[in-house]
Prior knowledge:
Layout lengths: L19 E3 L10 H9 L11 H11 L6 E4 L1 H12 L5 E5 L4 H8 L5 E4 L19 E5 L11 H5 L7 E5 L22 E6 L1 H4 L7 E5 L1 H10 L7 H10 L2 H26 L7 E2 L7 E5 L3 H10 L2 E5 L10 E5 L3 H18 L1
Parallel strand pairs: 1-11, 3-4, 3-5, 5-6, 6-7
Antiparallel strand pairs: 2-8, 7-8, 9-10, 10-12, 11-12
Helix pairs in contact: 1-8, 2-8, 3-4, 3-7, 9-11, 10-11
Amino acid sequence: MHDLRHHGDAEVRDDGSALTDLAVNVRSDTPPAWLREHIAGSLAGLAAYPDGRAARAAVAARHGLPVERVLLTAGAAEAFVLLARALKVRRPVVVHPQFTEPEAALRDAGHTVDRVLLREEDGFRLDPGAVPEAADLVVIGNPTNPTSVLHPAAAVARLARPGRTLVVDEAFLDAVPGEREALAGRTDVPGLVVLRSLTKTWGLAGLRVGYVLAGPETIDLLARAQPLWPVSTPALAAAEACVGPRALAEAAGAARRTAEDRSRLLTGLGGFADRGVRAVEGAEGPFVLLRLPHAAAVRERLRALGFAVRRGDTFPGLDRRWLRVAVRDRGTTDAFLEALGRALDDAG
Length: 348
């Protein structure tokens, strides 16, 4: 059985707090000073109940949608719980390997969940025909965590059917230059629900803020399942700021830098190919997935050398041969590659 509740932050708690964090997919130089100051400025309004109208309108404008198609949530994780509890579905399917919280939320809500496992030999790329026709809820990430594969928007849209809800987790899409293959903002795909997170690019995991884009009927259904005032005033301030022109320009620059840093990491990892290290090809997210010999031992040795990486065996479709590594700056990458070489020596 896979531990669906294991996430990257477990690697850097307690005795891992002093490690260089390559286990959590949050941009390391965030939140920027201007965003911290903006959030701090919202604290003067804490005596009032949160009013999400301005943030909701800002998100809607960012994606060219009416506000009726936007729901603000306490992170994308809340959205998965709302979908699991509010939607009346008979045969939900989760496309794996991917972020495990959607399946965990569905199971907690009493659903029996079918899995479609993408295959290593296919590069973990989506085959729409592999999803059962009878599925009335399909969940897929794009780019997918942990494989870092960016599926073509056309292929993902082919999963849509009348009577089916298609949930696309785009939590890392703003880390892709130009947001290629995004479905956010589309209104021509039946049953489409897109989830976005402001946690990753802006370093706001502790604040909990994200949003859902969907048809008005679905948004209304999910909103009725939320508690009152589900998103705090500081989180609303962050949401409004992070979808403005200045923030979008900064995020675009960060995406370009991430692509450059990922290229350096992949080039360095290629130097270990003769030792059995293989990165999933075509990575487009701010992380890469590695298959390597003695992965569990290498992970423990890396911890001793000061680096935390994410184990892969908690993801359905993967096993103990896999590790996920977050993309970081040049200096951190070079230090990690040196440590990896030592870890491979010791583990082998």
